[in-house]
């Protein structure tokens, strides 16, 4: 008999398998050698019990599954495969694929499809940036995800060259494997701005952000790479302002300009303590070395001044604010300027009459305030050696030249004036030869509480420069009559007209030459008697004829030969004239003429009535 090595049941010697458990029966064998009778046998699988078999099978299965899972996890977390997959998504512009593999460096900032789309557009627009980014990611992989650049990116300010995306080793995955993540770096939007000193708010894509100021730079964020609309908002007493710029936020070293001409400004003016108005609103601030603002300096805002004075309220025009130092001048209104014009007119009328009658007391007519300067000016024109004979024909005031100024509480105004006289300084025994004389002056007035505006002094100037001239109401006929009725005129009546007519005819001939050479009849038109339309046409046709022939003339010499009174305010004037005449073919000639003219005496003075004849002299 023998026993089953698997279950221990007795079996016959001849049996090959156990009747109880079915295990194969084996013969015991003795080990040879030094072991002798102690040789042992190992049980076969068939000799194991069912329970033991189950246990052994489970262990094997667990080992196989564990090994398979390990290999799967090793493959799943393989950084090379991750990098290849991410690169493929970049190349294929797979937005959803990229979002599935990338995380934000700032937990509060969510990566959206817009961020990825903006990034892909940027990388396509700048292919070298894509190449550098992918190369940097491979370098991160080779350095086991330890990125110096990624560490720099964690700060508030990003150095130039920082990767937009890094590949970083971040902890373990499934306990055994190194975890690698693609991280989109957030960094600030950096601005250059003149806003730093102002009370501003900023927003990025409509969401308000807190600015940080660093040595003239402003940083907003951090924010993820992408395209953004940055808005600065200023709300102050004088201005409500929003300034927007579009920012392509992909290069950390970029600084975007967010400049607006908004600042404080100072006013320079011609009076103290004038009230400042901005865009029609009274600021309550006076222009005495005060800074006003903040305001826009781009010309879109307007400033003006107002001030009450002894002669009424004065204002400045509205001036566009365009500089840190702004000149804003107070000006007289039209009524106040008319007061000055009235003073100028009163001065000339009184001065002309006083000179004509040689009576200084006439300066005080029309309640005119005679200052020391006016009195001295009159004295300078009266002499024991000669008599002044003349009358006023024209006074023009340059309305663009008014200048108002306050100094130590005293108000001054100056204005440019031009006068024209027919006058002569007649010495005993001489004939009167009235000639036109024009002078320009700068009249300076000061305001007196009792007398109003009075002439302080007068300067000579070269002439009027403005484009707006006011001609004062001077009655030339009345002025000439005033002279004719004066004592000075009684002894020299005959010579007066003769002296006036001769210079007039000379002036007419000179103007005619200018009209011929300029081909402009209007130059001589006002010197022709309006009652002589036939002669006016004759002169106009002659100018046109010379233009067609290409002829020009120069007056070389002219002299009055004789003046004869024809009666009925008509005078016959004989003249001698010499000319150089230039022809179209480049030749020229010198000619002399005896000419006869008829002159009318009108209310506006001498006027040429007609050319009687002109005869060439050999």
From TrEMBL:
<dbReference type="InterPro" id="IPR054529">
    <property type="entry name" value="TcaA_2nd"/>
</dbReference>
<dbReference type="Pfam" id="PF25155">
    <property type="entry name" value="NTF2_YvbJ"/>
</dbReference>
<keyword id="KW-0812">Transmembrane</keyword>
<dbReference type="Pfam" id="PF22820">
    <property type="entry name" value="TcaA_3rd_4th"/>
</dbReference>
<feature type="domain" description="TcaA second">
    <location>
        <begin position="81"/>
        <end position="183"/>
    </location>
</feature>
<dbReference type="InterPro" id="IPR026870">
    <property type="entry name" value="Zinc_ribbon_dom"/>
</dbReference>
<feature type="domain" description="TcaA 4th">
    <location>
        <begin position="261"/>
        <end position="329"/>
    </location>
</feature>
<feature type="domain" description="Zinc-ribbon">
    <location>
        <begin position="3"/>
        <end position="25"/>
    </location>
</feature>
<dbReference type="Pfam" id="PF13240">
    <property type="entry name" value="Zn_Ribbon_1"/>
</dbReference>
<feature type="transmembrane region" description="Helical">
    <location>
        <begin position="54"/>
        <end position="73"/>
    </location>
</feature>
<keyword id="KW-1133">Transmembrane helix</keyword>
<dbReference type="GO" id="GO:0005886">
    <property type="term" value="C:plasma membrane"/>
</dbReference>
<keyword id="KW-1003">Cell membrane</keyword>
<keyword id="KW-0472">Membrane</keyword>
<dbReference type="InterPro" id="IPR056902">
    <property type="entry name" value="NTF2_YvbJ"/>
</dbReference>
<dbReference type="InterPro" id="IPR054528">
    <property type="entry name" value="TcaA_5th"/>
</dbReference>
<feature type="domain" description="TcaA protein NTF2-like">
    <location>
        <begin position="500"/>
        <end position="611"/>
    </location>
</feature>
<dbReference type="Pfam" id="PF22813">
    <property type="entry name" value="TcaA_2nd"/>
</dbReference>
<dbReference type="InterPro" id="IPR054530">
    <property type="entry name" value="TcaA_4th"/>
</dbReference>
<feature type="domain" description="YvbJ-like NTF2-like">
    <location>
        <begin position="340"/>
        <end position="458"/>
    </location>
</feature>
<dbReference type="Pfam" id="PF22819">
    <property type="entry name" value="TcaA_5th"/>
</dbReference>
<protein>
    <recommendedName>
        <fullName>Zinc-ribbon domain-containing protein</fullName>
    </recommendedName>
</protein>
